[in-house]
């Protein structure tokens, strides 16, 4: 599927700004924006928290993997949930159809942004802390990223400006 206009997938911890930065980036690049959490809810006809309550975390991860692995997107900015990196098929597919961008935040900034985990819909495995989750996920984000963007101390606008210039340059080089 590489023949069309390439898409961009944003990965990172919950509260890293995947949706906020994704919408802004899509507008600046003239792309569509896909919030995969909303796609999951639409296809499953349930809220994410209902899927987790009914099927457990493992069941949710299976649903998330299946939907991300079947996602069709061209010339889009894709914002999957932070746990997408656990789905091997999903990540293989997203790497095939898009450039994967890791929005990297320090643990302290993630903790500050998240506040109450339950209200933010962050699903932790039994007995797991936010720090445990952070330490578990960061190596996956780094493994799958084509591009890593440091977010600490920067506004969404500054991040989007940096990404836009990087991606437009990449698009120009690919056309030549």
CATH homologous superfamily caption: P-loop containing nucleotide triphosphate hydrolases
Query: Strand sequence of the main sheet, in spatial order?
Result: 2-3-1-4-5
CATH-scheme architecture: 3-Layer(aba) Sandwich
Order of helices and strands: EHEHHEHEHHHEH
Average residue pLDDT: 89
Cα-to-Cα separation, first versus last residue: 19 Å
Write the layout of secondary structure elements.
Layout: E1 7-11, H1 18-29, E2 32-35, H2 36-44, H3 48-69, E3 76-79, H4 88-97, E4 98-104, H5 107-114, H6 117-120, H7 130-144, E5 147-150, H8 156-175
Parallel strand pairs: 1-3, 1-4, 2-3, 4-5
Helix pairs in contact: 1-8, 2-3, 3-4
Model description:
By secondary structure, this protein is α/β, with parallel strands linked by helices. It has one domain: 3-Layer(aba) Sandwich (Rossmann fold). It has helices spanning 18-29, 36-44, 48-69, 88-97, 107-114, 117-120, 130-144, 156-175; strands at residues 7-11, 32-35, 76-79, 98-104, 147-150. The protein has a five-stranded parallel sheet, with helices on both faces. Helix 1 crosses helix 8 and helix 2 packs across helix 3. The two termini are 19 Å apart.
The gist of it:
Helices cover 57% and strands 14% of the residues.
What are the key terms here?
single chain, globular, alpha/beta, five-stranded parallel beta sheet, Rossmann fold, 57% helix, 5 strands, 176 residues, 8 helices
């Amino acid at each position: 599927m590489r023949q069309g206009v390439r898409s961009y997938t944003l990965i990172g911890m919950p509260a890293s700004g995947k949706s906020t930065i994704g919408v802004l980036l899509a507008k600046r690049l003239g792309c569509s924006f896909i919030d995969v959490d909303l796609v999951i809810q639409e296809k499953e006809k349930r809220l994410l928290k209902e899927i987790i309550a009914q099927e457990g975390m493992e069941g949710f991860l299976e649903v998330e993997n299946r939907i991300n692995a079947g996602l069709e997107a061209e010339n889009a900015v894709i914002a999957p949930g932070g746990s997408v990196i656990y789905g091997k098929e999903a990540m293989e597919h997203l790497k095939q159809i898009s450039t994967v961008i890791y929005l990297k935040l320090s643990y302290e900034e993630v903790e500050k942004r998240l506040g109450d985990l339950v209200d933010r819909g962050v699903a932790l495995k039994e007995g797991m802390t936010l720090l445990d989750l952070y330490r578990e996920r960061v190596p996956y984000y780094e493994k799958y990223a084509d591009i890593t963007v440091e977010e600490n101390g920067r506004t969404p606008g500054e991040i989007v400006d940096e990404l836009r210039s990087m991606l437009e340059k990449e698009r120009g080089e690919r056309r030549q």
